[in-house]
Amino acid sequence: MSEALRPDLALIARTVKAGARVLDVGCGDGALMAALRDAKQVDARGLEIDGGNVAAAVGRGLSVVQGDADSDLRYYPDASFDYAILSQTLQTTRRPDLVVEELLRIGRQAFVSFPNFAHWRGRLSLMLGGRMPVTRLLPDTWYDTLNIHHVTIDDFRALVKERGWHIDGQWFLKGDRETTHANANLFAEHAVFLLRR
Amino acid sequence: MATISITEDSRFGLRRQVRLPGPLPLVSGARLGPLDIAYETYGAMNADRSNVILICHALTGDQYVASEHPITGKPGWWWRMVGEGKPVDPARHFIVCANVIGSCLGSSGPASPDPATGEPYAMRFPVLTIADMVRAQAMLLDHLGVDRLAAVIGGSMGGMQALTWPTLFPERVESCVVIASTARHSAQNIAFHEVGRQAIMADPHWRGGDYYADGRVPSAGLAVARMAAHITYLSEAGLTEKFGRRLQGREAKTFGFDADFQVESYLRHQGLSFVDRFDANSYLYITRAMDYYDIAEDHGGSLASAFAGTRARFCLVSFDTDWLYPTAESRIIVHALNAAGAQASFVELSSPFGHDAFLLECPELNRVVDGFLKGGRA
Lengths: 197, 378
Fold this sequence. Notes:
Chain A: It comes from Sphingobium ummariense RL-3. Helices cover 35% and strands 25% of the residues of chain A.
């Protein structure tokens, strides 16, 4: 892989099976797609809201469509991909639960990665400082953040349980490294779930 | 790389014209033949003929995509996209651009002589569709010995042809670039065209289309048609920036109906210079073909079914200030391609220039098209 992938993307890239069909929702400039294409001969398609990112991704020869995860997933047929991937985008959607439902309709499995808002640093900032946390993973202030649905690992697990989805895999990240499942909700900065319906 | 020698083959090069026997069966049921097609080619076909790119032109465009226009002396209309070091490059690609049938730059159209009478067809020329134009292009490619297109590329009406190609000849198209275009003509599009046609037909010189004999052509009507259309090619912001309410060569309003405002003077110039290079009847026929264009209608009302089973890759580009074929039209195409499981890319680019943006300076457009074309060989 030509460029260093973000840790959650590297983890997903490792797990995706070679030759799979993948829809990367919120694919950014296509870094993961390019890595999957080049290293695993994956047939990757992308959806991305930012025009500059789309132009960059198409400029590197990727099939990326400019669109919105909240409104444009319904145009994809059922089970048309092996994996649907939503990385660091869940917390920016208007209806995260419906977006995940769509991912599980379109893909046989879905990767969902998101920053854990219950990480101890954020908790501390809120409890002691009384301010919304601004951290390395969540660098934006409350008024200009794109994150409109702050979610914790335990929140997400509760949603998975409530909807009856299955967890095929889960990984937790602290910085660039994987961390244990124990107390992930307190100690993990980032979570990656592999789900199916 | 081995190439097919083109220097001694008269089929290839600039300012070519061929008479094909046809007949070409038209969507209307009529048949057209023999038919002339004027075209240009650039670059050379490689040994396996896998580097052919067809460029499709817009309503008033022509085959001079990357060479000087014989009437206006201006550089090729898409020199920013086609040429040395550009995304479509004769050093790498064999490039074909043909004048659409119905037009007036050397391909059969209403100004051409009707073989039955020897007189210009005028309004006896059969009404055409975009699909007819595409089938004529396919006949030209047969003549050139081209089976498959690495890419078919077009903006505006050229985009309509490009998008139609894989629906008619799915086995002949590997990729398709559709810029500032649509899968169907909207009521508003048809309405603007009707204004233009009525302006032409209201000109006393039009005379039912039989104006070729004495050289008194419906210039005034055609100029008005062009002026009205030209407004739709620009954006309100672009017009404001370029002209605002500034006066033309005068200090004060004249309280008359001369071209007081710069924008009036500009439009009059656009109208007048257009009549020197375009035939009024061709304008009627080509706008009609665009109005009849609706790919979904030709496929049982489902745009997705038009692309079912296609293996072509698609790249769609729209511009945020284009209100003639706005982004929503491109999105309709993208959703249909997604539903059909086709490989599709789409981006809305930002430009102040409205619909005309695809012809103007836009580095992002070149980057997208270049990346898309190269992506096929990744």
